[in-house]
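Run folding on both entries below.
>entry_1
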Amino acid sequence: MLRRALTNQITRQQFRFYRVNRSNTVINFVPQQEAWVVERFGKFHCVLDPGISVLFPIVDKIAYAHNLKEVAQDIPSQTAVTMDNVTVSMDGVLFYRVVDPYKASYGVENYGYAMQQLAQTTMRAEIGHLPLDRIFSERAQLNAKIVQVINDSTVKAWGIESLRYEILEKGDIHLPQSVMQAMQGQATAERKKRASILESEGERQGAINLAQGQRESIILKSEAEKMEQINKAVGEAEAIKAKATAVAQSIQMISEAIKHENAQKAISLLVADKYMDAFSNLAQKGTTLMLPTSVHDPSSMIAQAINIFDTLTTKRKDMKSIEASNEDKKPEPEK
């Protein structure tokens, strides 16, 4: 208890420079970023702003001189228990400034020491509301929450505004050895889990890429076969068309040749030649044949073919003659 009392007394002495008595020299010069609180007959009179001011001697007293600059206050390391019952040791720094010199003078005895104690208790309380994992991951939210809680208590009552609170980067959070080992094991398990997930994702993506490649290959192959069939069909159609055109032209030429004299003999010879070719092809391709009686005599076969052609020609001429006579016998229309 004696050691704690001595420590508190020394700490209070360290903050005495925030409120320093100034001598009244009648004509007083207030430095920039300072505010002097003047008492007259022991009672608050006014606050002197930076510049020149005239005060009455003896009756006016400069009771407090406040520094209006931003002040960085170290927060000593302290032990706290998290929500999941883990003991941690943390230290930080608090940044604040005086916004109301009157309240800073008469609202609190020593606002520097009071701000330090309030920051410690607030940090201990806020750590108790969070599990250990969130303390590491939500440090910014923790700092903002501490500043908010401090301002709710100090701005209106003491005239002190907390600007920000920061947990120190070096040696800021101290954990027991058993907790450190447990956290390392947890981190190792998490890394293994992520590695297995990444490996499975890679295999899955590889299978998908392979399936897509096979699918595209099949599609391209089918498209190629389709184009091949289309080109083949177009080629066959063109060939049939060309063949039909050639046959039509040959028929036209034959019909033109029939009109000439002595064409019948040439045609008879052509028919006989085609008859022999057809019979020859039939003998090569078929297995069952119906042969004419004169197969041993090709000359008689040719004569037979010519006789058939002549008979057809004669019948054709007779049909044309009958048609012509019928046309002549039609009665003329009455005039």
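>entry_2
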Amino acid sequence: MENRLPTGYAEFLADLKERIRRARVKAALSVNRELILLYWEIGRMILERQRKEGWGSKVIDRLAQDLRREFPDLKGFSARNLKYMRAFAEAYPDKKFVQEVLAQITWYHNITLLEKVKDPTERIWYIQQTIEHGWSRNVLVHQIESGLYHRKGKAITNFDRTLPAPQSDLAQEMLKDPYVFDFLGLTEDIRERELEKQLIARIRDFLLELGVGFAFVGSQVHLEVGGEDFYLDLLFYHLKLRCYVVIELKTGEFKPEYAGKMNFYLSAVDDLLRHPDDRPSIGIILCKSKNKVIVEYALRDTTKPIGVSSYRLTRALPEEIKSSLPSVEELERELKK
């Protein structure tokens, strides 16, 4: 076996061992940063040898055996992980970016991003969000699988006209479309009050889906206006925007009158609840579905900042799975047999 190894393998292995030893000493001071840089260096070196000398995957298998024999107390040198290192170095050729950005998140975060996000721009966005919000790996997986990158900032709003910059940009970025409430396990024919109750019962999951900065104030919040009683479905306070956020839930399609009602609610909240230091309250109308043109007309002349988003109770199936499922007609034929 030894004779069949490619030229330069022994020197290459010795060099890797020395790098690993040096990294272990530094790791006492900065474990994660040194680990990420070490893995990137190993991946880069493997990549270079494969490109220049045509090393195949079998050499990686042998390399894994030798490194684990030399460092039996370390778990990161399996053949699979060495291949991740190679993919990591290939995806991020800029060492400075690895040092300054990627070393701020764990190796498991980096592997997750490599496996689940193929578009480089989208991947960098998730990296930045993970660093900014301190997402755990499980939260990162949830955000990727729910398609957060493609949903964030997509709601139809009038913020550019009703809020000053930069609050209008921050508020727009706060909203998603659609919101995904698959954690509720509900059917599509649910009533508004039941949807509200279930969201409150799962408030931690609901806050995760809403995004960073939302603080729950209450449900069915009472307002008295002109001697009459009114109730807000859900009331939040956004810590970053420094304003109240009123959320109204609608289990059907958006209707123009919803915008007028929300405009009224926001006027009341600004008058009765808003502190002088708070910024203007924002309204979010969550509907099962919406017609983009109708929403834009409904919001055009409203004076209060309002956004309209749809929601889903189940996560959309991938196309390859969806195409393999039987149709209703096929199921009916099978049941009749």
